[in-house]
Design brief:
By secondary structure, the chain is mostly helical. The chain has 19 helices and no strands.
């Protein structure tokens, strides 16, 4: 096959992905679900679940191995810039004082129970779901870490669209979700380093390299980016040269973290955190990067995930139904019950507690990133991958129905102060 023929096949695959994810995204929004739910479903439908089942020849022609490899590269670039945008959009003012203490408590309540239950489920199904060569502890850490994730970017979009990002429930959930995700990436970085190096001692170089990189970017890097931010503020826009420099740093950070054994999304995320807290900088980055990334490159990632989702074990009498039910149950119960209990203890009503528990359960794109990194490092079997994709879709789809049932629109804007309201003794 010459280069022109290969390019035509890649273009055809991208066109199919774009059409499928756009259509499913619109259907999801029509039934009052986030667009990302439809895009995740579209990715699965392009894989063995539908297209590969009804038209295997067509799927093989559209997504041959070499095209899949190209899609992987494009999705990795998209994920790196996506996580950069996530990091740059974080409001550092949210992480301070009593706000931070409440959010930290909520984050811990979502991580620890879910991690413990997920690790227990992993131990239960270790013999049937773990890849060859993976130790029990590595497998338990991976599953526990994957289930501990909350989809911070999706929550931010939902809360902003509904105009409740600055309400008690919005601010509390956003900061806690950001902490959850940061903890999950740390866990994943350590697991990958240990798995690649062979032992915790051999992995020390990787972990130390990631720590030094993060420290450098959040100190020296932040000061240098601050100077760029001052220039952008003076000019009122981000020039072509400044934008090129920012893109170069993101790509270099992604390359470096990949090189030392930590996935490139870590480099993108830390670089985003180092960006200045400037409204103009945020506007320029979002305007120039968001559309291409969210409309094309991220759907490519969903398609790549779907192509790796094997559903043969879910047939009648399939062996995956029991582990799916158990893992789904512990994923939901750990987040919902743990988060709801802490929110209630902080003085919110049970309605607020249930709403936060539902939102914190949404795993969205973040868990797909997590498990695809695991797949790239041979830490996930096709069976476990399929189970965790199902967990991602179901928990994300359930978030808004639980939220709406728990908290009617009339109660969303009851207060704009982050500090939780005092509950009278008679209501406790």
């Amino acid at each position: 096959m010459n280069q022109i023929q290969f390019a035509l096949r890649v273009f055809a695959a991208l066109a199919v992905v774009l059409a499928a994810t756009t259509l499913c995204g619109r259907i999801a929004m029509a039934v009052k679900q986030p667009r990302v739910v439809g895009e995740m479903v579209a990715g699965v439908l392009l894989g063995p679940a539908l297209l590969g089942a009804v038209a295997p020849g067509v799927q093989a022609q559209i997504f041959p191995t070499d095209v899949k490899d190209t899609l992987y590269v494009l999705s990795t670039i998209g994920l790196t810039f996506y996580m950069f945008l996530v990091g740059s959009s974080l409001d550092h003012k949210l992480a301070s004082g009593q706000r931070m203490r409440h959010a930290s408590a909520l984050a811990v309540s979502g991580i620890l129970p879910t991690f413990a239950l997920g690790a227990g489920a992993a131990a239960l199904f270790f013999s049937s779901l773990s890849p060859a060569g993976t130790t029990r502890w590595e497998f338990m850490l991976f599953v526990g870490g994957a289930l501990s994730i909350t989809a911070f970017p999706m929550l931010a979009r939902i809360l902003q669209e509904r105009g409740i990002a600055n309400t008690p429930i919005g601010g509390l959930t956003l900061v806690a979700a950001a902490i959850d995700d940061a903890a999950a990436w740390v866990i994943l970085a350590v697991i990958i380093a240990v798995a690649a190096a062979g032992s915790p001692f051999d992995a020390a170089g990787t972990v130390a390299g990631a720590a030094v990189f993060a420290a450098f970017m959040l100190t020296v890097g932040r000061k240098l980016f601050g100077k760029l931010g001052d220039r952008v503020e003076r000019e009122g826009r981000m020039s072509r040269d400044v934008m090129a420099l920012v893109l170069f740093v993101v790509l270099a950070a992604g390359w470096f973290t990949d090189y030392i054994g930590v996935f490139s999304v870590f480099g993108g995320f830390i670089t985003g955190l180092a960006m200045p807290q400037s409204a103009i900088v945020r506007r320029e980055l979002e305007t120039r990067l968001t559309d291409l990334n969210s409309i094309l490159l991220l759907p490519v990632f969903f398609a790549f995930s779907g192509l790796n989702t094997q559903v043969s074990g879910f047939g009648a009498g399939g062996a995956l139904w029991l582990p799916l039910a158990v893992i789904m149950l512990v994923a939901f119960a750990g987040k919902y019950l743990g988060c709801a209990a802490v929110v209630r203890a902080q003085g919110f009503s049970w309605r607020y507690a249930s709403a936060v528990g539902g939102l914190m359960n949404a795993r969205g794109l973040m868990i797909l990133i997590f498990i695809n990194i695991g797949l790239a490092h041979d830490m996930v079997t096709p069976e476990l991958f399929a189970i965790l994709v199902a967990v991602a879709i179901v928990t994300t789809a359930a978030a808004m129905p639980i939220y709406r049932a728990s908290l009617p629109e009339s109660m969303e804007q009851s207060t704009t102060d982050f500090i939780p309201p005092k509950v009278p003794a008679s209501n406790k």
